[in-house]
């Protein structure tokens, strides 16, 4: 349905789009119908094309307007107007319309990108003299120009490799200026990030124009959006830097005290950290830890004297060896014997040549680096652990060397050292921003925990793997609380003693206890349909509440959101684009698009999703792949989703399957079913507490020999 001049007309969507437009034009006696087009009447103003016309639903309100080609031509001329007011208005319209890919294609065909870059390069100088008297107008003009540029490039029609050094220098100059309009600074940072991420050549040019020192001041402000864009640029430079350049860049970041600035002005600022900032902090955390990958994958060379000297230093610090004996043949044998004895005390597997312990990767040389750091920076704790265990004769000594190697490997697995950051993860840990050598300090806390847990378990060498499993559980449980500092992390671990872990395990085991007696199994079978119906209703209620989904693209910083929710009668899915992430539920009437549940043919997930087959970059990301699902409807139509997290993914796939009358197969449903079944059974068995339930019904007793015990009460 379309409306113009308050007149409403109904059209058959099976007709060609050009025929519908001609019919509308004829109704208002408009000539040259090819110069017109249909457009959504909502805030999106997107053009209707043969490609997207299938998305139009009955009752959708459309607007008759000039065609995208004609509109693009007019704006192309208007933005070159000599009138400042006319130019400003044209650039404002261009910034709005550029979000539409149909218009964008037409404007780009007119070499519009080139025109905008020329305006940025030379136009600013042209109006330099006007800045003092027209500063607000000039700032708005530049802001709209950059916004239009960002929106046009976001469609992926034009390659980033086509831009000149002059344009890069100009964008960089906006970032390097101490006082710059917020909107201009935002767009400039977004453009630099996209340049770095999408072109190797542009990375090198941007890296020459932008230094970390010039970006740091933007982190010291109070605008979280600017801080987020700034960290995004730093992450992009870090991510695309050649391997040999990354460590150098990390050293520069350390010199400029980036970590402490982020800690003070971002993490500990008196405001909540939004999702995008959390994501960028997570990316920075991952990239920083990935610097350890080289050492983690480097085997020790037993013939390398410098590396062997590190082991000698560990021995020297632990035992404070006396002056070396003379180099006579007899004293040489004595020295070898002494070294072997000391290496055994240090807990190495190979007592004769401990260098062989570090030939496994991971953790490679990273384990030895951690051991040396612990010995030098926490010398008292190091000496205490080594001497305490080397003096034990009851086979309960904790081997420091072997423990350190396995612990380093475990910590690398927990922090996923060497893996690329996820597109969707926001899981950063504030405590890793509180110390320049956070991984080494993390190790030092955990090796002391391992020694403490070993003693609490009264473990022997045969229990080594069991101890490591307990330590991993202790570390993982402490990390989930997101401690704000390493001291707080250490305090959390103090409360997670081996005894406490046993209590937690026992409690969880009781909560998840699987009663195997036949009466309990029969009871489970009887109440399971009720529980599944309860879970189904919860899933559908969550779909009725709705969820905000992010539109991921090649330039993640450009946040675009859309919302989807199920109607209360469970018959229609309402969805539509949003300008920003909503606070609470979004009303049905604000979501323009509808999809009847009856039209849904199937729900597909992961690699089977159309948008995962199209986007090669996302396809390679395992975590994004695990969050993707699509609704297939009509002939070749689909509604594509990328869930914000695994929980929402399970909620939506379960809910959609329930709507289609299919089983809910997610991991969340299995966990909920187990938990609710266990709780229901325990509630029903409360009166039977401490009474053993037999596996089989009790036998029927024999008839009594007489019935003398029966008497008449009357």
From TrEMBL:
Major localization listed first in the record, in broad terms: cytoplasm
GO-annotated biological processes: apoptotic process; phagocytosis
ELMO domain segment(s): 306-479
Keywords: Apoptosis, Cytoplasm, Membrane, Phagocytosis, Phosphoprotein, SH3-binding
CDD domains assigned: PH_ELMO1_CED-12 (cd13359)
Record has Amino-acid biosynthesis as a keyword: no
Annotated compartments: Cytoplasm; Membrane
InterPro entries membership: ARM-like (IPR011989), ARM-type_fold (IPR016024), ELMO_ARM (IPR024574), ELMO_dom (IPR006816), ELMO_domain-containing (IPR050868), PH-like_dom_sf (IPR011993), PH_domain (IPR001849)
UniProt keyword S-adenosyl-L-methionine, yes or no: no
Function: Involved in cytoskeletal rearrangements required for phagocytosis of apoptotic cells and cell motility. Acts in association with DOCK1 and CRK. Was initially proposed to be required in complex with DOCK1 to activate Rac Rho small GTPases. May enhance the guanine nucleotide exchange factor (GEF) activity of DOCK1.
PANTHER family: ENGULFMENT AND CELL MOTILITY (PTHR12771), ENGULFMENT AND CELL MOTILITY PROTEIN 1 (PTHR12771:SF23)
Protein name: Engulfment and cell motility 1
């Amino acid at each position: 349905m379309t409306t113009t001049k308050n007149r409403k007309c109904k059209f058959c969507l099976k007709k060609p789009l050009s025929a519908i437009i001609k019919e509308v034009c004829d109704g208002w006696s408009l000539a040259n119908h090819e110069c017109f087009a249909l457009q959504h009447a909502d805030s999106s103003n997107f053009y209707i094309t043969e490609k997207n016309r299938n998305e139009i639903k009955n009752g959708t309100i459309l607007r008759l307007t000039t065609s995208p080609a004609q509109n693009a031509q007019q704006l192309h001329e208007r933005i070159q107007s000599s009138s400042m007011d006319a130019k400003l208005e044209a650039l404002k319209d261009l910034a709005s319309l550029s979000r539409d890919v149909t218009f964008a294609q037409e404007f780009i065909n007119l070499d519009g990108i080139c025109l905008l870059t020329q305006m940025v390069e030379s136009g600013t100088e042209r109006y330099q003299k006007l800045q003092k008297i027209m500063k607000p107008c000039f700032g708005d003009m530049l802001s709209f120009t950059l916004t239009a540029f960002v929106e046009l490039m976001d469609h992926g029609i034009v390659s980033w490799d086509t831009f000149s050094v002059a344009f890069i220098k100009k964008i960089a100059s906006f970032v390097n200026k101490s006082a710059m309009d917020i909107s201009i600074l935002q767009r400039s940072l977004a453009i630099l990030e996209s340049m770095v991420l999408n072109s190797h050549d542009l990375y090198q040019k941007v890296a020459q124009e932008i230094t970390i020192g010039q970006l740091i001041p933007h982190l010291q402000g109070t605008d979280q959006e600017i801080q987020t864009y700034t960290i995004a640029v730093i992450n992009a430079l870090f991510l695309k830097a050649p391997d040999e350049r990354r460590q150098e860049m990390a050293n520069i970041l350390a010199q400029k005290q980036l970590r402490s600035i982020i800690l003070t002005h971002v993490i500990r600022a008196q405001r909540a950290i939004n999702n995008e900032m959390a994501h960028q902090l997570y990316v920075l955390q991952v990239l920083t830890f990935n610097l350890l990958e080289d050492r983690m994958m480097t085997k020790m060379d037993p013939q390398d004297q410098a590396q062997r000297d590190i082991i000698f230093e560990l021995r020297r610090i632990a035992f404070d060896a006396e002056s070396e004996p003379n180099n006579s043949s007899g004293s040489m044998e004595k020295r070898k014997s002494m070294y072997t004895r000391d290496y055994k005390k240090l807990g190495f597997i190979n007592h004769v040549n401990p260098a062989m312990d570090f030939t496994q990767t991971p953790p490679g040389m990273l384990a030895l680096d951690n051991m040396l750091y612990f010995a030098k920076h926490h010398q008292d704790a190091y000496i205490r652990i080594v001497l305490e265990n080397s003096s034990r004769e009851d086979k309960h000594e904790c081997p420091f060397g072997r423990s350190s190697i396995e612990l380093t490997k475990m910590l690398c697995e927990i922090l996923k050292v060497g893996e690329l950051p996820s597109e969707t993860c926001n899981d950063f840990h504030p405590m890793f921003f509180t110390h320049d050598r956070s991984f080494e300090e993390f190790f030092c806390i955990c090796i002391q925990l391992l020694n403490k847990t070993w003693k609490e378990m009264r473990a022997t060498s045969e229990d080594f793997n069991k101890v490591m499993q307990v330590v991993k559980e202790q570390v993982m449980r402490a990390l989930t609380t997101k401690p704000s500092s390493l001291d707080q992390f250490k305090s959390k671990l103090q409360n997670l003693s081996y005894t406490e872990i046993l209590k937690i395990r026992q409690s969880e085991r009781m909560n998840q206890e699987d009663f195997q007696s036949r009466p309990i199994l029969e009871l489970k079978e009887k109440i399971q349909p009720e529980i599944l119906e309860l879970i189904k209703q919860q899933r559908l209620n969550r779909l009725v509440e709705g969820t905000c989904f992010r539109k991921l693209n090649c330039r993640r910083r450009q946040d675009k959101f859309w919302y989807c929710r199920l109607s209360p009668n469970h018959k229609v899915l309402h969805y539509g684009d949003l300008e920003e992430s909503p606070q609470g539920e979004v009303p049905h009437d604000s979501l323009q698009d509808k999809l009847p549940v009856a039209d849904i043919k199937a729900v597909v997930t992961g690699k089977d999703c159309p948008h995962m087959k199209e986007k090669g970059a996302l396809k390679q990301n395992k975590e994004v792949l695990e969050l993707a699902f699509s609704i297939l409807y009509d002939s070749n139509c689909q509604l594509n989703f990328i869930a914000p997290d695994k929980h929402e993914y399970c909620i939506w796939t379960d809910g959609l399957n329930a709507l289609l009358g299919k089983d809910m197969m997610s991991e969340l449903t299995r966990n909920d079913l187990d938990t609710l079944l266990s709780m229901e059974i325990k509630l029903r068995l409360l009166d039977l507490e401490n009474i053993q339930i037999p596996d089989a019904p009790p036998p029927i007793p024999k008839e009594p020999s007489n019935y003398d015990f029966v008497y008449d009460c009357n």
